[in-house]
Amino acid sequence: MSRTIKVQKVFDVSGGRNPLHVDPEYARSTRYGGTIAHGHIALSYLCQLMQGWLGPAWMRGGRLVNTRFIAPIRPGRTYRVGGEVATVSDAEVGINLHIRDSRDCIEGAAVCLKRSH
């Protein structure tokens, strides 16, 4: 799954006005060197991926774990959101997740309870 981060839409809905996310001049003066997307935007893409893979099971018992923000997510760029199954037990499935452009930006994992019979 690929997504282009459209930060302005999130600002319009959330009312969030942190200058790191909305003020290019201010953001250039920070260690990030420019505006970055809110972390919860990226996390929502990981959840969307899991919902697509696991459907209702994700909503009943899924959770993101050990998520690391390695590099900033930049507005207007396209990122690949993906993952691969890492573990399967009688009780749950573990999936390694990532968001990447030319490099890793976010890594983490998801755990989802298996449906009981």
Set out the fold topology:
Blueprint: E1 2-4, H1 7-14, H2 19-22, H3 24-28, H4 39-54, H5 56-61, E2 62-69, E3 78-88, E4 92-100, E5 104-113
Antiparallel strand pairs: 1-3, 2-5, 3-4, 4-5
Computed Rg:
16 Å
Poorly predicted runs: none
Strand order of the largest sheet: 1-3-4-5-2
Secondary structural class: alpha+beta
Count of strand segments: 5
User: What is the correct CATH architecture?
Assistant: Roll
Question: Main β-sheet, in a few words?
Answer: 5 strands, antiparallel
Please supply descriptive tags for the structure shown above.
alpha+beta; elongated; Thiol Ester Dehydrase, Chain A
Please explain how this structure is put together.
This protein is of the alpha+beta class. It has helices at residues 7-14, 19-22, 24-28, 39-54, 56-61, and strands spanning 2-4, 62-69, 78-88, 92-100, 104-113. It has a single domain, classed as Roll (Thiol Ester Dehydrase, Chain A), CATH 3.10.129.10. It is built from 5 helices and 5 strands; from the N terminus they run βαααααββββ. Strands 1-3-4-5-2 form a 5-stranded antiparallel beta sheet. Strand 3 (78-88) and strand 4 form a beta hairpin. The longest helix has 16 residues, at 39-54.
Précis, in short:
The protein is α+β, with helices and mostly antiparallel strands. The protein has five helices and five strands, in the order E-H-H-H-H-H-E-E-E-E. It has a single domain, classed as Thiol Ester Dehydrase, Chain A (Roll), CATH 3.10.129.10.
